[in-house]
Amino acid sequence: MATRSYRLDSSRLLRREPVALAVLTLAAILAFLFVTGLSRMFHAQQDALAQRWSSRGLTDLQAGRYADAIPEFRAALLYSRDDFDFRLGLAQALIGLHRNAEAYTYLINLWGRRPENGVVNLELARIAAEQGQTEQALRSYHNAIYANWPAGQESRATETRFELVEYLLKLQARTQAESELISLAASVGDDAAQQTRLGALFQRIPDYEHALAAFRRALAADSHDPAALTGAGTAAYDLGRYSIAERYLQDAVSRNPGDYISNDRLRIARLVLQLDPLRPRIRAAERDRNVMTAFAAAGDRLKACPVAATYAAAGTSKQDLAAQWAKLKPQITPSGLRRDPDLTTTAMDLVFTVERQASEWCGTPTTTDSALLLIAKLHEGN
Amino acid sequence: MGSIRNSHASAQTSSGAPALAEKNAPAQAASAAGLSPAGVIWSVFREDRFFLVLSVFIGIFAGLAVVCFRFAIDWSRIYLLGTGAELSPWRLILAPALAGLAIAVLTIHVFPAARGSGVNQTKAALYIYDGYIPFKTAIGKFIASSVAIGAGHSLGPEDPSLQIGATLASAIGRRMKLSRDRMRLLAPVGAAAGLAAAFNAPISAVLFVIEEVIGRWTAGILGSVVLSAVSSVVVMRSFLGSESLFRIPPVELRRPSELVAYCILGIIGGFASVAFSSGIGALRPRCRNMPQWTQYLQPAVAGALIGLIAVLGAPQVMGAGYEYMDEAMHGQFTWQFLAILAALKILATLLSFVSGTPGGMFAPTLFIGAMLGAAVGGAEHALLPHFHYTAGTYALVGMGVLFAGFLRAPMTSVFMVLEVSGNYTIIVPVIVANTFAYVISRALQPVPIFDVLSRQDGLDLPSMEELREEDVLRVEDAMQPSPGPVLECDDSLDRGFLEQEKSSCPFLMVRLPANGWACLEQKQAEAWMREGRGGYALGTLLTDARIPYVHPDQPLDTVLRYVDRWPVVPVVNRANLRKLEGVISQRDVLARYRDFGGE
Fold first, then answer.
1. Structure ipTM
2. Regarding the domain delimited by A48-209, which CATH topology (the fold level of the hierarchy) does it fall under?
3. Which among B29, B177, B332 has the least Cβ separation from residue A105?
4. What is the domain partition of chain A in residue ranges?
5. B64 → closest Cβ in A32, A53, A77
6. Of the candidates B427, B357, B293, B366, which has an alpha carbon nearest to the alpha carbon of residue B146?
């Protein structure tokens, strides 16, 4: 019986094999075609859903509605699990809600996939900076600066360097910040806004020379830029170049009369230019008049300044200065100054001493006294 | 089963003449049937070859079916739960509840076989139903499981995929009118294809089917299973891409001392596995014994409760949860939340499974393992910060731990993690942790979950774990020392007769040339002596009386093939076939088996 069935199976198999294979092949092809159609439908739907949710997420992200953006990006990821941009969007939304730990895990995975991506490096740098991981933050900032940025976003590398400078200034790392700014100066070009921003950062270093240069480049591109005018005026003022400062500040104030700080500086700059008896090529009569004005202002400042006991005990006392001033006072006349050429120097030395001491004892001086102090600073080396 | 017969024949090769006789059986049968031996060989070869080709086709069809199944699950999710990531509370509760109601009606009235474990149904096809699985089962599994998983029931697509593959293979086999032996093997071949496509992991699928369904390795089975698994994975990848189920982060083991942390994970995973399987073992029969009308409501209630868990803040427990395993691996959750998720997933899966909702437990097992692993790793790191911690490594090891502890497939658990991670540095932690989990689970829950389920279903299927672990009696356990001296072939019959009288033993062993053995029986010796052949050399008299020999380490049942034809069988040393270690008789074998039964 077994032998018979064996024979039957074998012969049946032999007979059927080619037909069976042909039928199976045909069925497989048909099934393949059917599943291909189904697959196209499925993937088209998945792509459409991914696109729909991601565009909603992006809109909410850009509008700062981070809480709404998170589930939208998560939904987009359901349909396109590995999409880099969706994950990045989700991470950025999480950062927006200060869920940095969660965002970090997304970002670090994205970084693993594309270590050269600028946005990822920048976000990682921000998180590290916020968590006080200075080394990591600096590394990520530098990675971001030298990273690949998407087309049309190349300027973000410059932006990142600006951000790095801000971070370094916050850390009081002025030397590093300055070197970053010098690199930036080369890459910013003639963009007025960027040069103005650069100048402002140079001022914070402080590096007034580079600041003034940056503001001047900004003004070369746009001579009416009020921020650049103010910046240039301030930088020149801080450098002691009062005539340049006066010019820029004059322009800045005329464009923005509400800028009281520039206004004050302008007044002081003018006073410096006006009151300085030691400036070159000054006429004798004017010099004598300036010495007398300065001497009188110093006397007034000394009289008006109440001296605290702590200061009174240390070094030069108010009484000494008052005595010196009173002793010299009778000589400070036009004829006295003409008779003794050295008297100008003696008088101005006393004026500078009085102003410095008074500013130490009594705080912020008046406009004239400020000008005298600046004049003192101008001639400090002489 | 042809392959089983072949394996027996090859096992006997070293045992002498009977093996040859058995080997020749097909040839004799074919000769009787009128086919030449060459024709027989050709036909056997063709059948083997055809079976291999058929395995490829089974893989292709299973792969295509699994792709459709995946689409169906996703479409169910989209239309039942919505397209967004955050859903309204009502939808979260109503979708799984209503889906549960529909599934209950379907499984009670239309597809009753769609309930239950696909692994066990495949085993039943192999061991009971001659490879037959009704095609309706696959349709039922496909519809009910895709709706259930899509609606958020805490079940996975792997077990249904496995069963869909097995059913397709069975249907193809029936159409091809294959022999019964081949038909039986087709179900596991299809099961491997279905599982491989569902897991996107052909090696793990092959190992699982060998380890848990077929239970033995032979070249014939392995070739077919591998071919079907590989072809199904190729098909699946051509439609769904080659990405693995999870994005695997870099995994590493920095210091050997970190293995302690993985041991702890293995221990905790072992207890979690026991809790999970005990829960299923205890609750499933109770739910099934409840009144008939409650059977309609059980999946709906389970669905509503799972929806409630989601509303209360853990929507991650819904569905298969692969995307959340991915997130856990990438450290998106705190360890406290991971621990909560592991506990809630056990609860949700218990609810879904014991309510009779069709679906598999592979994905939930991996989910629980991933969450538990990352949670234990995170907790260890919080307590001992010098321990290096990456969520991905612990989550992967955790998956293996639950696979070994709950599904009790230790080999598959190791290879599954290796295949999924593609990283061999993880092998040591996986082996260490899996061993702990497996040993604990086996100690506390002696019957593996698949056997528990099959017994609850009234089936007595062979337990692969019991087969692996059972004590095997060997020849050395029953053999006796040789009762008298061993005679040489040059010795005369006179000497043999003398020795026999001296030792009063009914038989003596005789060494023949070329490592052969013979037995000089007392009656035969007396007859030859009466014939006056006392001076003859024993080798001359016993030339045609060679008997097979066995070795001490061979299974005792090997001897059963010979002891009815020869009074004793020599037991010889493997390194020196002329050295007699002892003898064994039918009585010795039966006595040993009797004692073994008493033990």
1. 0.77
2. 1.25.40
3. B332
4. 48-209, 288-378
5. A32
6. B357
